[in-house]
Amino acid sequence: MNIREQNINITLSANEIRQEVLSFDDQTPAEVAISISLTDGAHLDVVLLQENVSSAKKCTVRIEQGVSSALSMSTITLHSMDIKNDVEVRLKGEGAELTLNGLYLTDNSESVDNKTVVYHEVAHCSTKQLYKGALDGESKASFAGMIIVQPNAQKTNAQQTNRNIIISPKAKVHAEPQLVIYADDVKCSHGATTGQLDPVQLFYMQQRGISEDDARKMLTAAYAAEVIGLIPIEDVRERLTDSLFE
Predict the structure, then answer these.
(1) Number of neighbouring beta carbons within 10 Å of residue 66
(2) Which helix (H) or strand (E) holds 117?
(3) Taking the mean position of all CA atoms in its chain, how far away is CA 160?
(4) Under a CB-based contact definition with an 8 Å cutoff, are residues 104 and 68 in contact?
(5) pTM higher than 0.70, yes or no?
(6) What DSSP string runs through 6-45?
(7) What is the pLDDT along the chain (246 residues), one digit of tens a residue?
(8) According to a count of CB atoms within 10 Å of the terminal CB, is the N or C end of the chain lower?
(9) Rounded Cα gap, residues 11 and 37, in angstroms
(10) What is residue 199's three-state secondary structure?
(11) Which residues contact 178 (CB under 8 A, 6 or more apart)?
(12) Which phi and psi angles does 32 have, rounded to 5°?
């Protein structure tokens, strides 16, 4: 669905299963607010697709999950000018499962900011987050992720990972993963890494007749493929995979 409204509400009833693709383009409003509510046992797979958007966009997502609900959200930002994503999730029902995956590929003067805040409010919930970025040109990106485990949220299992590669020396990235834990029986981890394309792999590929530019593109595509491969919506996953390696 191409987004044409400022406010989008997605509500799933008990045990409902649904998949949604929300696509941003230049006709999308500059500010979009998305509200998602999952009642007991509901399961939603959603993709926020921000591809080749040439105008500034801010997307605010607010999510609430009930007992044993499951949400997978993939935020894919590819070569878009000025994107800000602000995601807040409240896990209100025991046994809720949350997966947040993100990919951002930037070039020239593009910029992407991703912010996530996850509140574990009850026991026996799990969160997995993986955000990856590859930055070229003079582009900029940031990731700020926070997981807050409330006192009643015992047996929480939460993982948060942000990885970045800098392709151009003029590109910049800022990563700030955080944990705030008020319970004592939890398993929580977070981490961030920033590096460069492997020079040994670049050299190996060039020795086999591949140009430096093509080698960089191939290595970047392979790096990005991990997140694309996690998208549960098959046709979106296949199209993006084909686009990466074309």
Answers:
(1) 19
(2) strand 111-120
(3) 11
(4) no
(5) yes
(6) SEEEEEE-TT-EEEEEEEE-TTS-SEEEEEEEE-TT-EEE
(7) 899 999 999 999 999 999 999 999 999 999 999 999 999 999 999 999 999 999 999 999 999 999 999 999 999 999 999 999 999 999 999 999 999 999 999 999 999 999 999 999 999 999 999 999 999 999 999 999 999 999 999 999 999 999 999 999 999 999 999 999 999 999 999 999 999 988 888 877 888 888 888 888 889 999 999 999 999 999 999 999 998 877
(8) C
(9) 5
(10) helix
(11) 144, 145, 146, 147, 190
(12) -125, 135
Under 8 Å between Cβ of 141 and 104: yes
Whole-number Å distance between alpha carbons of 139 and 154 = 41
Indicate the DSSP class of residue 2.
B
Cα–Cα distance between 56 and 31 in angstroms, integer?
Answer: 9
* CA neighbor of 241 nearest in space, from 74, 73, 65: 74
* Per-residue tokens: 191: 């981490």
